[in-house]
Amino acid sequence: MKGKQVLLTGGTGGLGLGVTPAVLARGGVVTIPYHSETGIKRLQETLSAASLNCIRFVKTDLMDEKQVEKLVADMGRVDVLIHLVGGFSMGPTHQFSFEDWGQSLALNLNTTFLVCKHSLKLMRQSGYGRIVTVSSGAGVKPTAQLAAYSAAKAGVIALTQAIAEENKYFNITANTVLPSIIDTPSNRQAMGTDRIDKWVKPESLAEVICFLASEGARDIRGAALPVYGNI
């Protein structure tokens, strides 16, 4: 990814703490949209000054199409899109509120659609693009009380695969990863640490994501790659 313009959403989050350093180590020039400055400070503490010089932070609401459109347009070129933004939700379907259902779809699926839509416009103009999205094992193996989350993540898979088909003659690839539980601070807080040795480490998932965003994966399109760890 040396010299590539990389749009990395969720780059300051728990998974981003693994992915962002991996992208920078490969020479990417990174734009990270952010919602809260708390995440920026946490990321800055883990990176060198030289690495930070290769990042541009832009405050953006990824559920607002006009803001997403401006974010992408201001980049001028998007060679690689890595979309990490998402959120977990659970509850029995008969008790799950319609508001929470909509929020899950908005955060997981709508943001994916918006960043892909506007990045693709620039990618098709330049004749090059690598898109990697993050779905979940729940998107292909739904379980009880995960209806909204599973539906949203299944939508991410379908959207990514449709994009791959639409753009296969434009030197643009689109693939998605399906992690199980990722070892992030928020997941540790929510679920404890009894089984973290079986969870997927952000650094491990980062290696898979960076491969799919690289030239080495130029012939891989529409893949939904399980990254389940030992679960």
CATH superfamily: NAD(P)-binding Rossmann-like Domain
CATH architect. name: 3-Layer(aba) Sandwich
Q: Might you state the CATH topology name?
A: Rossmann fold
Distance between the termini: 31 Å
Order of helices and strands: EHEHHEHEHEHEHHE
Family: Belongs to the short-chain dehydrogenases/reductases (SDR) family.
EC number: 1.1.1.100
Organism: Gomphosphaeria aponina SAG 52.96 = DSM 107014
Keywords: Oxidoreductase
Protein described:
The chain is α/β, with parallel strands linked by helices and 231 residues long. The protein has one domain: NAD(P)-binding Rossmann-like Domain (Rossmann fold, 3-Layer(aba) Sandwich). Helices cover 43% and strands 16% of the residues. It has helices spanning 16-25, 37-44, 49-52, 65-75, 98-126, 147-166, 185-191, 202-212; strands spanning 5-9, 29-34, 55-59, 80-83, 129-134, 172-179, 224-227. Strand 4 (80-83), helix 5 and strand 5 (129-134) form a beta-alpha-beta unit. The radius of gyration is 17 Å and the shape is globular. It starts with a strand and ends with a strand. 42% of the residues are buried. It comes from Gomphosphaeria aponina SAG 52.96 = DSM 107014. This is 3-oxoacyl-ACP reductase FabG. It is an enzyme of class 1 (oxidoreductase). Belongs to the short-chain dehydrogenases/reductases (SDR) family.
